[in-house]
Design goal:
CATH class: Mainly Beta
CATH architecture: Beta Barrel
CATH superfamily: PK beta-barrel domain-like
Largest sheet: 7 strands, mixed, barrel
Number of strands: 14
Number of helices: 6
Number of domains: 1
Radius of gyration: 17 Å
Distance between the termini: 39 Å
Shape: globular
Low-confidence stretches: none
Length: 227
């Protein structure tokens, strides 16, 4: 599997005021159009995270979002979304969350990545993009994107491609994990299997154990627009 990179985005802390909430965020990212980018174990050197309790860190170093999901929202809801509407670092071509598995090891330029978890979208997507209930649609349609942890640091270029070097859990696609987490009551055995995967990020594991134990279904409270 070879996945082409369409765009690379990095962001800095900004103050956001949507008329209802005021907060700091590095969600709004731009294409710096650099010849090469350095990626450490904490992600892009040119990127920041404003809310380090919930974003960034070793298990969420780089956020990836598929262009196919943009097309999905255009066709299903007639949303004409701008580039980087989901605050991603990498936008990828031709593949989506149903093609990517937990624990997949990819090489990109000098960097070696491992897929660590699905993204857990929060209310900021709706707030910043300005489309009511967009976060909930991302969750309900299982179009979250995913995170990468960095196994080996180094430089990448936009012309580099993600090259799959190892697949550990062929059943555990990002979309499959999202479907199980969304309906934990009906996916108890599947969630047990997901939790057995050592590649799963600690914070996501903790959240999934809670949903499994409580047999939770549907959105989490912080994924709703009124949060």
């Amino acid at each position: 599997m070879v996945i082409k990179i369409k765009d690379i985005f990095c962001g800095q802390k900004q103050y956001i005021d949507n008329g209802q909430k005021q907060y700091q965020s590095s969600y709004k990212k731009v294409d710096l159009k650099k010849q090469k980018y350095y990626i450490s174990e904490l992600g892009f050197k040119d990127d920041t995270q404003s809310d380090k309790e919930h974003h960034g860190g070793i298990d969420k170093a780089v956020c990836v979002y598929p262009l196919k999901s943009y097309e999905f929202f255009r066709q299903k809801y007639n949303f004409d979304l701008d580039i980087c509407s989901f605050g991603e670092n990498l936008s990828i071509e031709d593949f989506d969350d149903n093609d990517i598995c937990l624990g997949d090891v990819f090489r990109l330029g000098e960097v070696l990545f491992e897929v660590s978890q699905p993204r857990q979208p929060c209310w900021k997507i709706s707030s910043i993009v300005g489309i009511k209930d967009l976060t909930s649609l991302v969750v309900k349609d299982f179009k979250t994107g995913f995170y990468l942890r960095v196994i080996k640091s180094g430089y990448i270029k936009k012309s580099d491609s993600l090259i799959l070097e190892q697949r550990k859990h062929p059943k555990l696609t990002i979309e499959f994990i999202n479907k199980c987490a969304f309906n934990a009551k009906e996916n108890q055995d599947n969630i047990k299997e997901i939790l057995e995967a050592r590649s799963l990020a600690l914070a996501y594991r903790t959240s999934l154990i809670k949903r499994y134990t409580n047999k939770e279904n549907g959105l989490q409270e912080w994924q709703k627009d009124n949060y």
